[in-house]
Structure prediction request, 339 residues.
Amino acid sequence: MLPGTIVRNIKSKGLVANLPIKLEDKNGKPLQGALFLIGKGSDSSIALKSNSDGVITIRLTRELLTQNPIIVISKEGLLAKDISYEVGGKTMKFVDGESVEAEVIQFDNLRFIDKEGLRVYYVINEEAAERYTDSFNYALNFIKEITGKGQLNPVTPVLTGKQDISIMGEPEGTAILPVDITDWQDKYWFYIHESVENDLINTKNVYSTNPNLRWIGDGLAEFVSLKFLTHKGGGYKEKMLENRLASLGKFPEEELNLYEWKTGDTRIAGYSFSLAFWLKMEKQHGLKGIQLFIKQFSDLKTYDIASIEQIYLLSFGKKFNAEDLVISQKEATEIFGRP
Ligand SMILES: [Zn+2]
Prediction:
């Protein structure tokens, strides 16, 4: 009933999230002043009243979720079947384990700019939004150049300033990414990463059929991000590598088998190892080899390991060996250009 990924993350990482929930009656009108009760019994219940937009914000903790609480919505004169609710916070941002207090915005109320087939939503001033739309289009063309793809399914940016926002009511199939325009990582790194991964993985639901393919999704997303930051100059490439080296340094093992780095695995160093893997592949087979792999990967109908082995052979001219996915700390560090 609550978004599965958020619940899993809260439980496994002990995060705390303020999750907005919008209540509506059967006519789609906000349900104001409804009572929202959470808990096992009347003693432990948390009672919240919906505001004039029909929104309540529930504070989710590991303790609360492991209790598997019962949720009751009550409003005089209304039956349960007359009430619908929508859970927001898909775009929730966590800082130090807590979700950032965010303004809740209805998707329909967002302003946007359409340019060259890209729609950019914004809660900043229009002039700046115009400028950023050009730079996002520039970035997307760069991704196409590196990946060799003519068509992309990027994520849809929502440009924000300092204000963090949580969006409700986005249509199915729209992958929204809030981008803080004051943050270089949001603009030049995470947007590229998420767009590449969305294109390769999410559009075809790859992880749900094979959760072991993060070395491809996250790995290539990191690889293209590094290319973009290198192209951008200004020390961004160095900052990214420093960041990736730092997570390597915190990794307790000698090596990582990337095929075991599955979805839900919280080991951040997986990003570093998978980036190192693709940098190595580029050195051995050139960007052309990687582009060939991306092309065939995008054309695949099934994502079982046999299919991957096949396109690996066709792209790189050598048989896939499970050992290829084992990268050591030492090797990754060397690949990043530091002794
Ligand atoms: Zn990713």
